[in-house]
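[scheduler] slot 2 assigned
[scheduler] job type: sequence-to-structure, two independent chains
[scheduler] chain ordering preserved from manifest
[runner] begin chain α
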Amino acid sequence: LFTGSKEMNTPILFICVYICLFFFLLEREAQEAPKYRFRKRDKVLFYGRKIMRKVSQSTSSLVGSTSSSRPRLKKKQKMLNIAKKILRFKKEVPILQMKEPPPSVLEADLTEFDVANSHLPSEVLYMLKNVRVLGHFEKPLFLELCKHMVFLQFQQGEYVFRPGQPDSSIYVVQDGKLELCLTGQDGKDGVVKEVYPGDSVHSLLSILDVITGHQRPYKTVSARAAEVSTVLRLPVDAFLSIFEKYPESLVRVVQVWNFKIAQESPFDALSSYALFHHQDPALLNGRVTFHNAKAGSVLARQGDQDVSLHFVLSGCLHVYQKMIDKQEAVCLFVTQSGEMVGQLAVLTGEPLIFTIKAERDCTYLKISKSDFYEIMREQPSVVLSAAHTVAIRMSPFVRQMDFAIDWMAVEAGRALYRQDDQSDCTYIVLNGRLRSVIRKANGKKELVGEYGRGDLIGVVEALTRQPRATTVHAVRDTELVKLPEGTLNNIKRRYPQVVTRLIHLLGQKILGNLQQPRSALGLPSMASSPDVTNPASNLSTVAVLPVCDEVPISAFNLELSHALSAIGPTLLLTSDISRERLGASALDSIHEYRLSGWLAQQEDINRIVLYQTDSSMTPWTQRCIRQADCILIVGLGDQEPALGELEQMLENTAVRALKQLVLLHREDGPGPSRTVEWLNMRSWCSGHLHLKCPRRVFSRRSPSKLREVYEKVFEKTADRHSDFSRLARVLTGNSIALVLGGGGARGCSHVGVIKAMEEAGIPIDIVGGTSIGSFIGALYAEERSAVRVKQRAREWSKAMNSVFKTVLDLTYPITSMFSGSAFNTSISKVFEDKQIEDLWLPYFNVTTDITASSMRLRIHTLDVIKRASMTLSGYLPPLCDPKDGNLLMDGGYINNLPADIAHNMGTKTVIAINVGSQDETDLCNYGDSLSGWWLLWKRINPWAEKVKVPDMAEIQSRLAYVSCVRQLELVKKSAYCEYIRPPIDRFKTMDFGKFDEIYVRTKAHIYTDINCSVYYSVVNVLCCYLFQSCTCPSADFTDLAEIVSRIEPVLSYLGADGQLLQKNKKKLFICTIYPITFI
C-alpha cells in the first residue's frame, strides 16, 4: 500500500492511525452512553404530538382566509379531530409538585443567646434576660438600675444566702453554678434547682415585700456555690429611688408582680382605712356602697370581667373554683368578717378566677374597679398597699416555689431544647406556640406535633430521666414556665396527690399514642404530601392575608368570625381596631411591650383571634404574621392563578407558621379548577381549601354598610353545613371525616349512608376511602349532594353490569383475566380529567404500591386514582403510575378502612363505613393432613356432610388481607371512630346490578343507626367543644401607669397590660399540676 519513500509513508501512516483511533474512541463512547428506556407507545405519541403541532399551525394560518377557503378549513379540522382520536392525544394537565417544608418550619435557628456579639456587657444581658420584669423599664431607667449591680465571688460550698438573712436582692450567675436548697421538716437541705450561668435566683413576692416596706428574712430557702462562681447581686433598694422619680413605673411593675398570683387566700382583719394607709375618709366618699346578701346568693361568678373589692362586715363569703376537667367546684377558702376578697382581679384587670357566694346572710362593703382606679389616681401608693394584702397571705410553700420556678421567654425560631439533650425540667406553655421535630437516623426531619397555651412539654422525659426525644423550637415568640426536676420532686413529696394528676395526664398521652400510631405524621408516603398536615387543635391566632386587592377580605373575616363564634369566643383584630382600642400610637415601636401584652391577653380570653392584615407590608401586617399560629392566604378561585405582593415579601422571611391556601368561589359560579397552578407557584403550603361563599361576601359595600349587614348576620346561628363553618372546624381541630371502605358492589351502600347522614344533618369536612369507597367518596367530594352521587353511581354500576363489555375485555390470563381497558373507560367517563385538588372537600385515597411494597395516598387525576385503588388482583392488571412507573393495586390489601389516616390528618371524629366481606371463622378441623379427593367427594356427594375448608384462592385472599384485618380491629376499638357496618353480607363483590336494592336496604337500616348513636356523637363534637374557660368574651386594656400619670384612656374603662397577663398565667397553669395550700 505504501510504495513511496520512507519519508513520504511516515505522515500517511500517522494520519491513518489517528483516524482509526478517533473512530475507535467515538464508537466506545457511544457504547458507554446509557440507553434510556423509551417505550414504543411514548415514541408514537411523541411523533403524533409533533404532527399535531404542524397541523394546528397550518389550520391557524387559515383563520383569516376568505369564505371560499372555509370548506377546506373544515376538512382539515375534521382530519385534526380524527388524528386526535387515533393517537389518543390529550391535553396535558399540570401535575402537583410535591414540595418539602422549608427549613424554617422544621429547623430551629442555630444562633442561641449570644453574649459575645452583643453591644451590651454580659452582666447587663444576663440581668435583662432573667429578671423579665426589668424589661418593662425604659432603657435609661434600666441602665441606671444596672449601676447598682455588685460582683461577688464564692468558693465551692460557700453560701450565697442562708435562712435568717434579709431577703432583699436579685442574684444572677455569671460564671460557675449555684444550688438552690429548701430546708425540710427534718432539718436537711434538699436541692430543688441548679442555677447555671445566665440563670437567676429571686422571688418577686420577696421583692414586693421590700418595695412595700415589709422586708422579710429567708426562712427555708438557701443558695450555695456548687463550684467556684461569680454572681451578680442587684439590691432591691435600687428600685426605690427609681420609683420616687417615676411613679408610673412603680405602678406598672407592681402590676406585673401581682399578675404572678393566681389564687386568693384568707386575709386578716383589716379596716378599710388601714388597707389604703390613708386617714382621710373623704377619699372613700361616694365610692363605697353597702350591701346585704341573702343565703345562697352569688356575688360574682368565675369569668366575670367587671369585678369589685368585697369587704365583709358580718357573716362570711365562700370562694369556689371549678375543678380541672370537671363541672363541680371546690371551696378554696372562706372570707370571714373583717376580711377582703377580689384585690387580685381588680389590680390586674383580669377576669375573676373563682366564684364568690354567700352561704348564709351577710353584709359587706363594695368598691368597684372604676372607683378603685379613681382612688389610685389621687393616691398612687394605694396599689402597694393593695398588693401587699395579697402577698402577705401566700403560704410558705408558694414562696418557696416562687424561688424555684422560672418564667422564661423564647424568641421565634429559637430552640427550647434539642434532641438528645439532658432532661432536667418540665415546661408549661403560657403564651405562644412551639413545634416538636424529630431527626431520624438517616438525617431526615419530621414533624411530631405542636404545643399551644397550657400544654406540658418534656414531662415524660423528665420523669423517666431519658434524653430529649425531639427538638422543640418556638414557632413564634413564646413564654413558658420552667419547672426544674428537683422542684417537681419536692412538690410530689409535699403533696402526693399531684402524682395522681400526673398519672392522669400521662395516661391520656399514652392512650392517645395507642389510638394514634406514631407513624401518624411519619408515614413515608405521607411525609411529602401537602394534604397530610398536623393542624393542631389548639390554634390560638390566625392571620388572614389577601392575594390581591380584589379579595373581599373584610367580608371574609366577618363571615369566618361568625362561624367561629359558634365554637367559642372569637375576636377579629385589624389595624384600625387596635388603634381605636389602644391609641393612635399603639403600633409605634416604643409601645411594643404594651401591644404585645394586650394581644396576649386577647388570646387568653378568646378561643381564637383573627388578625386581618393590611394590603401592604405595614407594621401591623408584620405584627399579624409574627403573632400567627397559622396563615390563611385568601384568593379568588375564578381569577388567574397569581402570587400576591405580600406573599412575595413573605417568601423572603423565615415564617414558621403553617400556611393554608383558601380559594373563594361564588354560589352560582363554576366549580374549582386550576388549583394545582395556584399551589405550584407557591413555595410550600400545608394544605388548601375551597369555599363557596354567600352572595353578601362579594357584594361591594362601604365599611358602615358592611357592618350593618353583618350585625344582622351575627344575630342568627351559623349554618353548620356552610363552608365557613367547615373552615372554622378545621382551624379549631373539630373536623368530621367520612371514611368509606372497600368491598366491591357492597360499596353501593355508601350512597345510602351518605343520604342518611345528609338527612340527619351531620356535616362532612373530609372524605377518604379505599377501592369502591374511594370512588363513592370522590363523587361526594365533587358533588356534595347525595342525590347527584346516587345518579352518577347508579349509571356507573349499570355500565359495570354490562356482560358484552366484560366479554370484550377478556384477555390471555397471564397477569389478569381482563385487560382493564373497559374499566378504565368507565372510570374516565365519570371523572374525565378532574384532579384531586379541584374537589370541594379535602380528599384522600389509599392504593397499594407493589413495586415499593408500601402504601400510596394519592396520585394525579381522579380517573387514574380510582383505577389504581380498585385494581383487584387477578381481575385487572396493576396500574403503572404515570409519574414513576410503579405498579399500583387495590388499597384494600394494606388498609381497607383508613380511618386512622383521616384521624392523623387532624379530624376529631371519624365516621367509618365497613362494607368488606366477612370471612367465616368456623372452619373444619381436619387434622394435620388433608386429601383433595376426600374434599371432592364431600362436595359432589349430596348425602355427605358438608365441610368448610378454604380452597387455594380463598387462602391467598385471606393472606393478602391479614394486615388489613388487624388494622380494622384497631380502628373499631379507637375512641375517635364511629364504626358502622351496613347489613349487606348477602351481596357479592360483583353484584353491581343490585344497586337499588343495596341502596334501599342500607338507607333504612343506617338511618336508624345514625339517629341512635352516631348523630349524638357528632352533635357532641359540634357542641361540647364550646369554650369552657373561666374568662369573659371580651376584656379591655388596663394600664395602671396611665391612670397614675393622668393620661386620658382611650376607652371608658381600662383593661390589663397584656405583658402582665403572662406572669399571671405562671401560677394559674402551675395550679393544674399541683394543689396550692394557703394558710
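[runner] end chain α
[runner] begin chain β
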Amino acid sequence: MNLDYVKKRDGKKVEFKSEKIVNAVGKAAAAVDQADPKIAAEITAEVLSYLKIFFKNGGTVEVEQIQDLVEKVLIEKGYAEIAKAYILYREQHSKLRDSKKLFADAVNIMDDYLDRSDWKVNENSNMSYSLQGLNNYIASEVTGQYWLQEIYPKETAELHSSGDLHIHDLGNLSVYCCGWDLEELLRSGFRGVPTKIESAPPKHLKTALGQIVNFMYTLQGEASGAMAFSNFDTYLAPFIAYDGLNYEEVKQAMQEFLFNMNVPTRVGFQSPFTNITMDLEVPSYLEDQAVIIGGQYQEKCYGEFQEEMDMLNRAFAELMMEGDAKGRMFSFPIPTYNITEDFEWENEKLDPVWEMTAKFGIPYFSNFINSDMDPEDARSMCCRLRLDNKELRKRGGGLFGANPLTGSIGVVTLNMPRIGYQAQDKEEFMQRVYYLMDQAKESLEVKRKVLETLTEQGLYPYAKFYLRDIKKRFNQYWKNHFNTIGLNGMNEALLNFMGKDISTPEGQQFSEEVMKKMRERLQQYQEETENLYNLEATPAESTAYRFARLDREKFGDRIIAANQERVVKEDADPYYTNSTQLPVGLTDDIFTALELQDELQSLYTGGCIEKGNKVLTNKGAIKIEEIVRDYENLKPIKALSYNAKEDRSEWDLITDAMSIDVSKNNKIRVIAEKGLDITTSDWHPFFVLEKISVKDKCPVCGEKVKGTKSFSTHTRYNPECRKKYKTMFKFKVVEKRADELNVGDYILQNSENLYPEKESLLDNDLMWLFGYFIGDGSINEYEDNRGGNHLKKYKLRFNDEHLSNLEKAKKIINNKFKTNINIIKNDKRSKKLFELATNMYSVNEFFLKYGFFSGEKCYEVNIPEQVKANITKNNVYSLLSGLIDSDGHINKKQGDIEYYTVSEELADDIVEILSTAGIMVSKEDKPSKRKNEVDGFRIRIPAQQAIKIKNKLTITNDADFLKGKLSLRKRRQLPVVRVKKTSKIEIEDNEFYDLTTEKNHNYLAGNRTMVFIHNTVLHGFLGEKIDSIEATKKLVKRIAENFKLPYYTLTPSFSICPVHGYLPGEHEYCPKCEAEAEAEENRRENLKAESEVE
C-alpha cells in the first residue's frame, strides 16, 4: 500500500498526513466536551488499518473516502456524539469551501457576463445585456447556490449540476408565474403593504390602467415568471362609458399603457413579462354582475358594455401593430383570446384583431371548442373552489398562468436525449423518466414549503396581501399554484434511443406512450400530495443548449444533437430541439405555439457579408457599410431584390441596415465564376439553381415514378407531359447556407431589366453618343482672347481609328444640334487616328449639363448621375453599345464582349448598370504589362449573354463577331455563377453588415459581380404570410375545431436574428442587436472623447 499521497476534491494530489485525521477527530471530540488524545489516536489507527486493506493492491486514496471511514469507525467504536459532531464538522467545511469558491469566482462571474461567455447570460430572452443585468446576474449566482446548497436535496442538486434535469429560475427565491385577480385590484386598489403608498380603487380608465402597470411591475418583483390578468377588456370597458371617452381618447390611454408596460425597469433591465386575456364578448358568468367603478358596485352590469369592449379591443390591436417610435412591435402584454362555441366569426368589429394575427401572429388563443378545457375552469380557480385531485387539470392561461390566483410554483425540465442515450430498452427508458420525475417532484414540494414559509414571514408582501383569501380557505398562500414538470429534446431522445425521429410512426407512437405514462405519474403525485401538478413543454430558451453542451462533455459526439452533422464536422455548439410535439389528442402539453410540422416551420435563416461589397439600390451600387452608416440620410432607399414566390426581380424598400459582430461565427469565403469573391457568415444563405429531379415523380403532373427510366416510360404514354416537359424550365431555386455550398453549385443572379419604361430626355442616339464619349471623347477648356475678352470656351473632341464610329457620332451631333462638323485626320504622328471636333456652345453645354467635365479624365472617368437618372429599359442597350464601340471589343473566337478601363469607378458603374438591366457581367483586374502604365479593369459579358441581347445592341463595329446560337449546355444560359471554391477563413475585421427589406426578399449584392443574398431577418410563414383577414379567421377556427390543443398561437411571421435566434413577430430588425450596436457606438464615442482630451 502506498499512502504517500491523497487525492483532493479538485483532483490534485498532496502529501498524505495522518495527523490531519488526528486533528479533525480531536476537534469533533472537543466540540462535545470529550477531548482526549487517546480517542483521536485510536480512531486514526483504525482508519489506517482499513486503508491498508482497501488499497493493498495500489491506488490513491481520496479525501472523501478517508472522511467516510472516520465516520464509520467513530460509530463502530461507540463514539456516537463525536461522530455526530464530526459529521457536522464535515458539513460546515463543505459549506465553507462552497462559500470561498463562490467569492473566489466573483471576478470570473463578472467576466463571464461582460464577455457573454456563460449560457446563463441568455437564459431569459426578455433580459437585456446591461449594468442592471450584470447586478442581477451576480445576485442570481448567489441565490442559485443558496437553493442548491441550502434548500434542495443533495441528490436533486447534483442532478441539476450534471444536466440530468434543469431547475429553472434558480436565481430567484420566488414563485414562477402568477395569474392575478383584476376584479380584486379594481375593488381594493393597489395597496396592502404597511408603510408603502396606497392607491384607492380607480374611478377612471387611465387610473385603472396606471394601477395595473404599478401592480404588474411591483408583483413582478416577487416572482420570476409571467404576470397575468384575465377578463381584461370586460372589467375595463365600463370605465370608458363612465368617463364618456371617445375612440381617440381610449386609444391614447391604451397607448400610454402599452409604452409603460414595455419600459425595462424590472430587475435585470427587463420589462415585466405580462399576459392579458381578452374576452372579446362578455362571458356568461360576468354578464349579470354589477360593474365596479371606484371600488363600488354600480347599477349597470358588465353585459351592457359590449360597444366599449369593441372600442378597447380595436385600440389595443391597432396600437400593437403600430408599435413604438421605430415601428417595432410591443413585446408585452401578450394577449390571449378565448375561442368558444358561440364565437362571432363574422363580427367586423374584430377585424383589427384578425389583422394583427395575420400580420404579426401576436395573440394566443384559448381553445374552448375542441379541447378538454372548460370555460368555467377560470371561474372555479377564481372562486377558490377545491379541485378534484384525481383529475389532472391545466392551470389556465397557457404558459402565463392567466387564470386568476393560479400559476406555477416552479418548473423542472427533464433531459430526454440523455435518457434516450443511456436506456437499453423501453422499460429502462421509463424507469429513468420516473426517477427524474420523482426528483423533480421532491424539489418542487420542497420549494412550495419554502415559499409558504417565506410568504408568511413577509418576503413577498404584496403577494401575501392579494393571496389572503386563498390563505383563509386552505391555510396556504400558494395552494392554487401548480408544480410544473417539463421535458426537452424528445426528438433527439428518440434518435438516440431507437434511431427514429418524432415524425415517424414509431417515434410518434413511443412518444405518445411516454407522455401517457408521465401523465399517470403526475396524477399519482397529485393524489399523494394534494397539490396541483401539470406537464408542459416548458420554454427552454437556454436549457436546450445547456443540456446538449453537458451531454457532449460527458458522452462526446456519440450522443446525437439536433445539429449533429455540424457538431461532428465543424465542432459547432450542439443543441436540442425545444420540448416536443405531442401527438394529436394528447392535450397535457401546453405549447408556446401550435406546431403543424408540414405547414409552420422556419424555412430560412439570415446572414451577413463583410464590408466592401456593394448593394444594388435605386440610388446606385453602394457599399453596404456606407448604407449602414448613412441609412437615415439615404432612406427611403430600395434594393434590387428577388421575389421567390413570383420568381421575378423587383425593387424592395430597405427598412433597416445594421452591423453584426461575427467574431463567434465561422466565416466562409466563396469564390465563383465571373470574379465572385465574397466572404460571409457561415449561416449566410444563397439562392442556388438546381435541376428538377425526375427520379421520384413527374414534374408536370406529379405522378410517382421509380427512376429516370420509369419517367421516360411515363412520358412515352403521356404525350401532354412529354410536350410540357420538353419546353418547361427544368431548374428550381433552392436555398443553401454558405457552409453548405459545394463546388459546382450555381448561385442565382439577376436576369430581369428593372429599368423603367419611361420617357427620357436621352433617346437611343444620345445615349449611344454618351457611351462613345466616355471611351473616346474629351472636352478641352481654352481661352479665346480675340478682342481681348479672355473668354472661357470648350471644345468637344472624339478621336478614333474607326471611321464608322465617327461617322455615326457626326450624324447624331449634326442632327441633334443643327451643326455641320466634319471628320478630320489627326496629326502625322498618329496616322491611324481620325478626329471629330466642335467648339459650338450648345454641344459642349449639353455634355457639361449631364455631368461630364473638361480636362484629363482617364483615371476619374465615370458615368454621371445625370446620365444614370435618364436610363430606361430601352436606351440602356444604346449606352452599352456606345461603350463597346469606344473602348470595348468582341472576342472573335468566343463571342464575349469585353471593355477595358483604368478607372475603377467607371468599371463599377458599368457593373451596376448592367446588373440592374439583367445583363450578366463581371469585373476583372487587368494588370499592365508596361512599367509606365497603371493597372486597369476588364468588364466582361459572356458570349451566352451577348447572344441574348445582340438584337438590342446598336454597335457599329465587331457586330459580326457575336455568336448566332446559344450553347447547347443549358446551364451556361442561366443567370448564375458557378462555385469554384469555398473555404473557412479567419479575418481581422469581424464587423459584418446586412440589410432588412420590407418584403423580406433577397437583395442583389457583391463586388466584381452580383448575386442575390439574404436578409438578416427572414420569416417563416404558414406557407406564406397571411394577407387576408378572412383566411386568418378560417385558419384560427379550423384549428380550434380540429385540434385538441388547449392553447395555440399562429405565427404567420417570426424573425430569425443570426445573433439572438428566434424572435416572435415580424421584426424589421433585431432589437437586441440594435441595443448592442448602440452600446458599441457609445463605447467608440467615449474612446474618441478620451483621445481628444489627451
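[runner] end chain β
[qc] chain β: The two ends are 68 Å apart (CA to CA).
[scheduler] slot 2 released
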